[in-house]
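Re: Re: ligand-bound prediction request (bumping)

Still looking for help on this. To restate: I need the protein modeled with calcium ion bound, output as structure tokens. Inputs repeated here so nobody has to scroll up.
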Amino acid sequence: MITLNTRYFCSTIFLYFNPFPREGLKRLGFMLLLLAFSTMFFNTVQTPAYASPFELACDDGKAGYGWSDFYPSGAAVLFSPPSAGWRITAVKIHAACILKGPASLFYIQIWDAGLNTKYSEPLLFNRVFKNATLDWYTIRLPNIVVTGDFYVVIIPMFTLDGPQLWISVDNNPPFSNTSLIMNVDRHTPLFHMNATSGKPGDFMIRVMGEPAPTLPELRLASVEFNDEETVMVFNYPGEVKNAWARLTRVNGDPVECRVSREGWSITVRVNETGLLNVLVETAGGDVVGAGLRINASLRTRFKTLSTNYTALQEFSEVLRRMVETLETENENLRTQVRDANYATSILQNQVWRLMENNTRLERQTAELSMSIDRLRLENNLLLILLSVAVAALLLTVTVRRLRVGKWAG
Ligand SMILES: [Ca+2]
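Reply:
Sorry for the wait, this slipped through. Here it is.
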């Protein structure tokens, strides 16, 4: 912060007191002009300008001094509109501009509370300002509709040999604490001109406008890169009458971009880096904008991602082939299992049949066993009968012999 503050003060001092260190008469002339302006800034008694119901102001209308700086410094004022939706119809700047050198541009931008660009317009100095005349200048804007707090940012694009825009600063208390010097390239505050800062003040920048219904946001839907260009698709969920886009190069030069529309989609093609501002005009004539920084690191990141993606794609291909192999193996195994199941089923049938046979054989064995027992019984009976018969026979024979002996005796 110390560096930034030093830079701010140095640049201010430089711009006021030492603009042309190497040029003789020109320097003297310019110094006199600057002194004249300083006098004007400090001595001119002005009637305070009061805000109309449709004018938002943070200054009290009395200019203390003029501020300017090289790109990428810009004068920013934060506005809190009285309604959520606000239609900006014009911006008023209290300033003096020294018109000299070739025609060149300064920028007027609208940022949202998150420091995102919603609108950016390059303007020719000589179309807006009268030469070396300190006054209020009104710049009409195409009905930009914003939601919530917003910043108006004026980028003076100071050069030593071109037009020089000096924006008035009200440096008398009370302070609104809403003015900042921004790095408009990085979208970061360089210096807060708060009451507690070493150099408090309110930039004399005002907004003309009126309450408006809040409109849908214009949103980035996709970004694609190829070798030639960056292709971005924005979506606006509403009827679009017109759409356009502009890129501000890193050096501050504006470039118109190619835009095509299809339904809610707005496609923008850019082949450079810088700050892109895309705008749509709604059916009701309001303008909604979106900003996007296209930088080299984004492209580098894309290339890294693209390389990673290619590597992943290759890996994915290897995995896919592995899955295919596994699937084939799985199918083979399934076939094998099916065959094995079939074989098992056959074997099981055979086992069932064998078990049935076995049961039948067991039954037959039991029957045979019973037959054997019966036969054994019968056999025993027969043996007994035979024994009895033999005994009877022997008895008969013996009896007969005994009778024969008696007779013979
Ligand atoms: Ca004041």
